[in-house]
Write a structure and sequence with these properties.
This protein is an alpha+beta fold. The chain has one domain (about 5-120): 7,8-Dihydro-6-hydroxymethylpterin-pyrophosphokinase HPPK (Alpha-Beta Plaits, 2-Layer Sandwich). The protein contains 4 helices and 9 strands; from the N terminus they run E-H-E-E-E-H-E-E-E-H-E-E-H. The chain has helices at about 25-40, 75-85, 130-135, 150-155; strands at about 5-15, 40-45, 50, 60-70, 100-105, 110-115, 120, 140-145, 145-150. Strands 1, 2, 3, 4 and 5 form a 5-stranded antiparallel beta sheet that branches. Strands 6-7 form a two-stranded antiparallel ribbon. Strand 6 and strand 7 form a beta hairpin. Helix 3 (about 130-135) crosses helix 4 (about 150-155).
Length: about 160
Amino acid sequence: MPHANHLYAIAIGSNRPHGRHGRPPAVIAAAIARLDEAFALFDASPIMLNRATGGAGRDFANAAALVETPLDPTALLAQLKAIEHDFGRRTGRRWGPRVLDLDIVAWSGGKFDSRHLTIPHRRLAIRDFVLTPLAFIAPNWRLIGSLTTRHLAARLARPAPAR
């Protein structure tokens, strides 16, 4: 009996140039091509430029991709970490610069929680650099309860109330 495929939302980020691929937007494009080779790429968002958060320093290029695979979340995470490593990512400072960052932010199986992975991503609702690209390709995906990608992205786009 064949395994059922799962749909995953992958957040993609880069803020360091790569020797072969070049500047971060080109790294993102190469990563999307790699996801297409490794899995069934369902869709990918436009590449967007965003200000760095935390101590990352350089600004980021970000995108989101939807991939289909029979892998469970833990196995997919291992594959994504291998792709990051192939692109030159090394473990280091938590909010530091990185050539490639691939995060599972949602999957068709709903919630998932293990020692190394939580889906949906714990900070998903406050990360416009993830929600905005994801809203291009999965606006109606219910990410947190009844809240869709579009709803969460719209919340972040609203101006803060005056104090």
